[in-house]
Amino acid sequence: MVHPIDQCPAGSDWRDQYRSRIVDARTAATKVPAGSLLVFTSYEGEPTVLIDAMIAEGVLGTCRGFQSVRGTRGLLADPDLTGGFRLLTYSPGGAAAKAVASGTADFVPGSIHTICGLLKDGAIAPDVAVVNLSPPDEHGWCSFGTSTDFAALAAQRARVVIAQANSAMPRVWSDLRLHVSEVDWFVEVDEPLPTPSPVVVDEVSERIGEFVAELVPDGACLEVGIGAIPDAALGALSGHRALGMHSGLLTDGMRRLHDKGALTGERKEVDPGLLVANQLHGSAELYQFAAMSPAVAMRSAAYTHDVRIMGSLSNFHALNSAVSVDLRGQVNSEFLRGRQVAGTGGSLDFAIGASISPGGRCIVALPSTAGDGRYSRIVPTLETGSVVTLPAVLVDYVVTEYGIARLTGRTLEERNRELTAVCHPEFRDRVRAPS
Fold first, then answer.
1. Residue 196: pLDDT above 50?
2. The domain containing residue 103 runs over which residues?
3. For residue 310, what pLDDT is reported?
């Protein structure tokens, strides 16, 4: 597959424009107007050099900023370090979860597709986009590389765009990119991209992955998240054929499945043959693969999380995890022991997409226990004050290491039996609802 050759829309002077906009990081930091709303690239695309410079220059104190800090150093969640900067996040993991709990950061509820809509319609109106790009190509175009997330949308709408031109950022094909003429200030860096620790697949995850693979037919289109269970499931699918991918994330597990010839996308009605995602999350080998492979297409989160696209894909199978599941089949993926520890993310978008896809399935996979076996994750009712991330009507299957609970078309009593059967044996009598 050959992508179209891009032509420079700004004439032949883009190199002069680029040179005139190069500044050092601390100078770039001073270009942030007081009181701005900033949007930062997240995950492995976080513009760390610019963030460090903004903190050093003390320019963030009056500002607010939108970012998912999951997978990052979490500096923006520390108001003492930033001088009072106020973080807005839809995904309060790690340091951001603590900041939200203490009241020093703000949580914006919403699925990823919802958040994209808020950016598009101006409800979240960025003043400054702070992004991490590849250096410009021969036509003056810069790639967002590992992350075409909210910052890519924000960069199209912000009054000021400040970019790291990072020689370590892979140039990955996407219909979202920035021309030199669209960036106000560049800081040239050679900053290796962070890579998450390799996922360790234990026996429980491996068993769950085997059960998940039983539910996925040849030719299905997959969405999976991060972690041992998704990696185990992808490994267990290596004997399948003609699988497709439409996901928020492209991971090493997907890369390996593609290399084995199982993930071809040949049956996809939309984007046939393409591995579609908006975030790369994995090793340096994954980044190299994405830059070299014509099969990788990085799309906007507004596209990857659009239920209309998923509904046009046959056999769309969404695999996501949870904190807990109750005996109705309601799923909580956000709330733990009285605290918001995550956001809705893409799980609701993908569950709805699976529900309208012909042959689609929403699969929730999780270990049966937490806390070294002290707590059951299948519970009679969700914790008081908890969040229903996925309503029971959207969940087709719940999988633990003890088997598969089929919920579609089941009565409450039948759901009770199915879910109790996949509990850890030590908890079954305590979890089982009275008959």
1. yes
2. 20-189
3. 98
Q: What are phi and psi of 142, to 5 degrees?
A: -110, 135
CATH number for the domain that contains residue 364: 3.40.1080.20
Q: Are strands 86-89 and 64-66 parallel, antiparallel or unpaired?
A: parallel
Confidence band for 8, pLDDT divided at 50, 70 and 90: very low
Kindly state whether residues 343 and 317 are assigned to the same domain: yes
Helix ranges, 333-422 (H): 347-356, 412-421
Whether the CB-CB separation of 147 and 286 falls below 8 Å is answered with: no
pLDDT tens readout for residues 112-162: 999 999 998 988 899 999 999 999 999 999 999 999 988 899 999 999 999
- The one-letter amino acid at 241: R
DSSP E strands: which ranges in 34-148? 37-40, 64-66, 86-89, 105-107, 128-133, 141-143
* Residue-level pLDDT at 71: 45
Q: Looking at residue 5, what is its pLDDT? A: 33
Domain boundary among 159, 189, 219: 189
Burial 57-75 (b: 16+ CB within 10 A, else e): eebbeebbbbbbbbbbebb
d(CA 163, CA 140): 14
Domain boundary among 139, 162, 189: 189
What pLDDT score was predicted for residue 59?
95
Average pLDDT for the chain: 92
| Residue in the block written with tokens 């199915």 | 418
- Is the pLDDT confidence value at 2 over 70? no
Helices (H), strands (E): how many in the chain?
16, 26
Residues 6+ apart with CB under 8 A from 95: 69, 74, 77, 78
> Nearest Cα to 130, choosing from 27, 74, 25, 51?
51
Based on the domain organization, do 208 and 175 belong to the same domain? Answer: no
Measured in whole angstroms, how far is the alpha carbon of residue 2 from the centre of its chain?
27
Residues 151, 235 within the same domain: no
Rounded Cα–Cα distance for residues 130 and 150 (Å):
11
Question: Phi and psi (nearest 5°) for 33?
Answer: -65, 145
With 0.85 as the threshold, say if the pTM is over it: yes
| 78: CATH | 3.40.1080.10
Chain segment 383-405, per-residue pLDDT in tens:
888 899 999 999 999 999 999 99
Is residue 351 a part of any domain in this protein? yes
Does 362 lie in the same domain as 220? yes
Residue 316 β-bridge partners: 221
CA atoms of 423 and 260, how far apart (whole Å): 34
> Three-state DSSP class for 150?
helix
For residue range 215-224, what is the model confidence (pLDDT) as tens digits? 999 999 999 9
